[in-house]
Specification:
Elements: H1 2-57, E1 62-70, E2 82-84, E3 87-90, E4 95-102, E5 127-129, E6 132-134, E7 142-148, E8 153-158, E9 168-175, E10 180-185, E11 208-213
Parallel strand pairs: 1-4, 3-11
Antiparallel strand pairs: 1-2, 4-9, 5-6, 5-9, 7-8, 10-11
This protein binds copper (II) ion.
Copper (II) ion binds next to loops.
């Protein structure tokens, strides 16, 4: 009897503790499900917003590019000015600051109503000649232009340098967009033929070069 009496409460105790454990387990499971559904709802509501803020906080990459305009150097055709190097490679979706050392000064009149006398498509609408900012030049005071028609970028380069110097240095900055291959060229008639647009003006490796955005 004693054994039986002892056995019954013992087994009842076991059963109830099993119920408590199962209840506890289900409770924890419910809590976990609740927390994860709440966090999912929160990330669905605010997740995209947070990502945008993070992306906007990263400043674009900023790179430097150097060009020279030269004339009558060994191996070149006589009186054909040229951009050197004739190929620039820059990263996509970045800021590019271009520095052009122009060693072929001298004014060449732009054709009437040509849209190449003002700086376009550059940061602040400005270029800098030996540190002096300018947004446009007189059409008869231009030596060359740096123009990428496909990207609506144009910078006129002055024909005269300060204090009779034989070269000047022009800087400007622009944003690159998607990857692609573009032409940079001069649209001031510094070339050959009656128009000034032949010869060096229409020949790759002279006043026509390639900008590779990658
Ligand atoms: Cu030119």
């Amino acid at each position: 009897m004693l054994q039986t009496q002892r056995t019954i409460p013992h087994s009842q105790g076991k059963k109830s503790s099993v119920f408590i454990n199962v209840g506890l387990f289900l409770g924890i499971l419910f809590c976990v499900a609740l927390i994860s559904s709440v966090s999912f709802a929160l990330s669905a509501t605010f997740g995209r917003h947070t990502t945008t803020q993070t992306a906007a906080a990263i400043p674009p990459k900023h790179v430097q590019a150097s060009l020279n305009i030269i004339i009558n150097q060994p191996g070149m055709k006589k009186d054909w000015p040229a951009y050197r190097p004739s190929e620039l490679v820059v990263p996509a979706n970045s800021l590019v600051t271009v520095t052009i050392k122009d060693s072929d000064l001298g004014d060449t009149l732009l054709p009437k109503n040509a849209p190449f006398a003002s700086a376009q498509g550059v940061v602040g609408g400005l270029a800098y000649a030996d540190g002096q900012p300018y947004s446009s030049l007189a059409p008869d005071k231009i030596a060359h232009t740096f123009t990428i028609s496909q990207l609506n970028i144009n910078v006129p380069l002055p024909g005269d340098a300060k204090n009779g110097a034989t070269s000047d240095t022009i800087t400007f900055t622009f944003h690159t967009g998607k990857a692609g291959t573009y032409l940079f060229q001069c649209f001031d008639p510094c070339g050959q033929g009656s128009s000034g647009f032949e010869g060096s003006m229409s020949t790759k490796g002279y006043m026509v070069g390639t900008l590779i955005v990658q």
